[in-house]
Amino acid sequence: MTREQAKKLAEELVGQMTVEEKASQLRFDAPAIERLNVPEYNWWNEALHGLARGGTATVFPQAIGMAAMFDDELLKQIAEAVSVEARAKYNAYSAEGDRDIYHGLTVWSPNVNIFRDPRWGRGHETYGEDPYLTSRLGTAYVRGLQGDGETLRTAACAKHFAVHSGPEALRHSFDAVATGKDMEETYLPAFRALVQDAQVEAVMGAYNRTNGEPCCASAALMRKLRGDWGFEGHFVSDCWAIRDFHENHKVTSVPVESVTMALKAGCDLNCGCTYQHIMDAYAKGMITEEDITACAVRLFTTRYLLGTLGETGSEYDSVPYTVIECDEHLSLAHRAALESCVLLKNSGLLPLDPETCGTLGVIGPNADSRVSLIGNYHGTSSRYTTVLEGIQDLTAGRCRVLYSQGCDLYRDRVEPLAKAGDRLAEAVAVAKNSDTVILVLGLDETLEGEEGDTGNSYYSGDKQDLLLPESQRILLERVLAVGKPVVVILMAGSAIDLSAAQEQADAVLLTWYPGARGGSAVAELLFGKASPSGKLPVTFYRNTALDSMPAFTDYSMRGRTYRYYQGTPLYPFGYGLSYGACSAVALSADRGTATVTVRNAGACDTDDVIELYLKDNASPFAPPNPILCGFRRIRLTAGEEAVFEVALDSRAFTVVDDSGRRIPGSGSWTLYAGFGAPDRRTEELTGTKALSFVISDRS
Question: Which candidate in 179, 363, 392, 563 could, as Cys together with 406 as Cys, close a disulfide (CB 3.0–4.6 Å)?
Fold first, then answer.
């Protein structure tokens, strides 16, 4: 069904409704209109990395981990699996008359905000700090969710529009002020790509104001969205964001004014309760029936595109419930976990050999934690495999595994009646009686996440600094002091200062939140069943970098992310080691495609990611550092050499001036190719230097 056909059907249906019936349909929990055979529908569902909050579903690695795959093809397959499970649940539940929240086909994912500051608690919901990477991955996820059938498999939603990345505690009243240059260069590209390239069906507004206007009723943002970009889908508010207009932003005084402001701006759907005042605003003459009708038509157009209204139905109506957590989907989740983990250091200790490693000591608050597997906005798995369990399963009958929790995730003791550090002696004993120690540290959704989620122990979900909680820093120090070979595993969704581990541990592996059964994949990487191949989608700064970084509330990009940071990071954007030794040995390019010859000089087969960066050689408007303009995941056997073509982002050859206009670049660029960013720190950590090639309009 085309949008034009769906819109015509929507206009005919809405034309039969009373004004009260139309108004009732602009709430996220839209009631049934029985006389018109319109069933009730709840628009709120979540699918960030698998279906969330609606029962059993395949739980994939958290979004930031899937970003680390640098694999848009796999991400599209994952989104397809997620949307198939959504259809299966919708078909089964609606057959039982269950049309509750989290059971619908409008999924409020993906989150394509830019992870501009490492303190932001929701950053692990995103695809990282780079606009191009976020655009590529977000586009893939939307295409996978929506499908290419006669009807939409699910309706995806690009959120949170726009300029939204903390602080969480201030989001209901905060004004995110961004220059025209930062808007066009950083904050808007991913939304533009999802609208124009992926035809995303919905866009969600952010809680905050942007440049003075509340995002769910911003004239400037709506002109960009529906005018410049030609968006034809529906717009939904973040949950209870319209209430913030009068309660927190103070741009209105009472609910009817907030309703009027949002509705006239083009906010079709209210997640929250403020649109219950629509009829009051209508009675006062503040909005017209035409205003209400326009929103209702857009919403019913989406429902027709999903095939949930009318007599024709959808080709997805027969998707069986048995696809939930099927072998194919679990296999995708396992592959994603393998590709997402990032090897940050390896002195040669990894991979371990289960036949010869002797006694393993597994220590740490995240070693046997289910919560650290799943991130936030997660579903429920029928089975979980922690890192400890994965190691135990893989080494069963071949080596001894000792375990100690070591410390609480952030409190100073595990048992409330004990003294501080009540698991440290046990941890030291385990380390002393082990041949190799695997120390599993990090965070979980109780320490970094959305304001209000799971209590958020610190700062409304944001981080105050980049350090591990003190209890874990003490544990790390005590275990390293034993003097045994140590692998540090970090389970977290954001940058953590691991300076002590980088200096003293033998290996460091970042697993993010690897999914419900991610412990199996982590074990396979530790023992060489697969080679690590993930790359950092964010910069890992040292904690002292915060001293020179703009304030958390400052949305300027100066000094932030790999494009503008002038210091030396702990681990750079794009960085990640493998058990192989891939390097680029030849490079040629034009403005459309790069041809890269790659050799794996190592003794292990491995996946890896070719990364291409572009530096404008003369424009004063170019970022100070080369920017990502292309990538491709590859696989090479030990000793293999192969040639790969990688498409280049055409927008990388443009720059954005201070007024926010995108204009042609200087005409001379340097292209870099390698397996990380072309910076000194990457060269120092990898021992390899990126190849370079000059592209010129004058050549």
Answer: 363
User: What whole-number distance in Å separates Cα of residue 337 and Cα of residue 339?
Assistant: 6
CA–CA gap between residue 1 and residue 150 (Å, rounded): 5
Domains of the chain, by residue range, sit at 3-318, 341-538, 582-696
Instruction: Answer yes or no: are the C-beta atoms of 526 and 513 closer than 8 Å.
Output: no
For the domain bounded by 341-538, which CATH number is listed? 3.40.50.1700
- Classify domain 582-696 by CATH number: 2.60.40.10
| DSSP helix, strand, coil percent of the chain (3-state; round to 5) | 35, 20, 45
Of the residues 117, 182, 238, 616, which is catalytic? 238
The CATH class that applies to domain 3-318 reads alpha beta
pLDDT band for 311, please (50, 70, 90 cuts): confident
Average pLDDT, the chain: 97
Distance CA 693, CA 699 (A): 13
Residues 6+ apart with CB under 8 A from 269: 26, 27, 28, 43, 234, 235, 236, 237, 295, 299
Same fold, 3-318 and 582-696: no
Identify the helix (H) or strand (E) that includes residue 74: helix 72-95
Question: Is position 238 annotated as part of the catalytic site?
Answer: yes
pTM (global) more than 0.85: yes
Which residues are paired to 631 by β-bridges?
Answer: 611
Picking from 53, 55, 81, the residue whose alpha carbon sits closest to that of residue 66 is 81
Nearest alpha-carbon partner for 117 in 615, 497, 560: 560
Cβ pair 254, 238 in contact under 8 A: no
**Six token digits for residue 363:** 């220590």
